[in-house]
UniProtKB/TrEMBL annotation:
UniProt-listed GO biological process terms: carboxylic acid metabolic process; sphingolipid catabolic process
InterPro entries on file: GrpII_AminoAcid_Decarb (IPR050477), PyrdxlP-dep_de-COase (IPR002129), PyrdxlP-dep_Trfase (IPR015424), PyrdxlP-dep_Trfase_major (IPR015421), PyrdxlP-dep_Trfase_small (IPR015422)
Reported cofactor(s): pyridoxal 5'-phosphate
Record flagged with keyword rRNA-binding: no
Stated name of the protein: sphinganine-1-phosphate aldolase
Residues with the N6-(pyridoxal phosphate)lysine modification: K355
Protein family (similarity comment): Belongs to the group II decarboxylase family. Sphingosine-1-phosphate lyase subfamily.
Top-level taxon: Eukaryota
EC number: 4.1.2.27
Amino acid sequence: MPGTSRMPVSLRNSLNVKKGSSSSQLLSLNIDLFRNIIFFLFLLRWTRKGLLKLKGRGVFGTILDAYISIRRTLYGYFLRAPGVRSQVQKQVNEAITKLQGKLVPSGPGVTKYVNLPKDGWTEEAVLKELEALATMDHTRWEDGYVSGAVYHGGDSLMKLQTEAFGKFTVANPIHPDVFPGVRKMEAEIVAMVLAMFNAPPGAAGVTTSGGTESILMACLSARQKAYAERGVTEPEMILPDTAHTAFRKAGEYFGIKIHLVSCPAPSYQVHIPSVSRLINSNTVLLVGSAPNFPHGIIDDISALSRLALKRNIPLHVDCCLGSFLVPFLDKAGFETELFDFRLKGVTSISCDTHKYGFAPKGNSTVLYRTSALRTYQYFISPDWSGGVYASPSIAGSRPGALIAGCWASLMNVGETGYIEACHTIVGAAKKIIGAIQENPGLNSDLQIMGRPLVSVVAFTSKTLNTYDIADAMSAKGWHLNALQSPPAIHVAVTLPIAKVWEKLVADLEAVVEAEKEKERVRVAEGKGAKGKAMGDSAALYGVAGSLPNKSVVVDLAAGFLDTLYKV
Ligand SMILES: *Cc1c(COP(=O)(O)O)cnc(C)c1O
Ligand SMILES: *[C@@H]1O[C@H](CO)[C@@H](O)[C@H](O)[C@H]1NC(C)=O
Ligand SMILES: *[C@@H]1O[C@H](CO)[C@@H](O)[C@H](O)[C@H]1NC(C)=O
């Protein structure tokens, strides 16, 4: 009995031992297997990334990207090295202090309000102060000295807008039952803009606070669509490098990886074969501009549309700037290209009513080929303790007054008015182009970039320093835009500029002549570029901008933003 009882025990023991060792063997085997699988997946993931990169950018492009990135990182460390860092910081602080001196008024004559007044001011006092604020010393946009910025529709339109605001000061479209008029106007604005862009039946849109929000929403919609329909969790989009920065903002805000494609001379349109190569299963959106901000060039939207259709990927066309000009080029008698919903691959369009639609600032629209695309940008929260909440775009409460101002502008200007404005504005742009290409004082030193068809004219110089020209124009009171990579200047023609285009050309001729004279003196005296006073754009874009790592520019720009909130 004991034997039999011992047997099973030892058997049990040996079994146990065996079971224990085999299970620990199994466990270590499993861990090994698990480790191998993880390693394999890791390898697969990075190999795939590497191959996609090679496919997208080619061997040369990939090496170039790696070189730029290494150079940037190393230079970043150099800038942070002791000694260098304090010098750089000192220079940045000096520049910011100088900027503050310019932007923030100070001195004995300036009263600053940093606390609520104990008792409210009288109406007269408020109005008097407002008048003083409105007439503070500024760059004269009223006289046409400012490129873009103020897309002015004339004095009587401004009066009408103010009256429209007055009637809807308290209105908020988040309560459509309380403000039915605002809801009606908003829906009508979207319908009118859809019609301007030849939207097919079933198309839809929303109004937003500006071009940036319109672009953010179009990118969000594309990302959500790709996630819902294809399970894309690492979204990517492909942009011309001239596309508005709002797309890069969308990339940062919504975690969408950005691929930039160059827009080479002479057309300065996005290079379509490069776009095509970058498309992969993570691509959620292609982008084209009509026209872009830097050079005023319309990308080859027809080719992008064909590509989008072939690869079945949404295509956004940024008409924020083109707004109420591109749709009317044809009717105003100018050359144009197809850019809107007539191209079957175009799935969304952003159009700023607050640019050449002459609506008050804070107004834009984003249009979609189908209402399903629009639904992807909605935010709906069914279970909030505050009640079911639904909002179409970023803002919650929105100013109904602006919608009224926008509606009043569209209705007051009307199609004929916009065609006329297009005629005046694009006409002036063509005259500026003509002068730069034909006037003997300009045509040997300035070159127009590409073939601009709308309101923006960009030019560069091979013989003179472009940023010195920009600074000299600023000294004459003009507020033109300095561009980078490559260095250039642009003028976005508006109605106020159209009135004074001849003065612009004359001042440009004087500036070019003066710069040429300086160049001659410099050569005659055998001096290098050193020893001359440097203007702001020359410093920002010429010096700081040419560094391999632009962290100095980032610091300067952050300082600029801080300055905006200094009392
Ligand atoms: C102005 C502009 C936008 C949008 O800018 P907002 O200032 O946000 O209205 C987008 N794209 C282009 C090409 C623009 O010129
Ligand atoms: C500069 O370099 C540092 C690291 O060396 C990097 O973290 C940073 O992003 C770079 N900045 C820019 C603007 O390139
Ligand atoms: C105008 O701007 C307001 C405020 O940003 C916004 O709520 C509204 O939708 C805009 N309307 C149009 C037509 O752009």
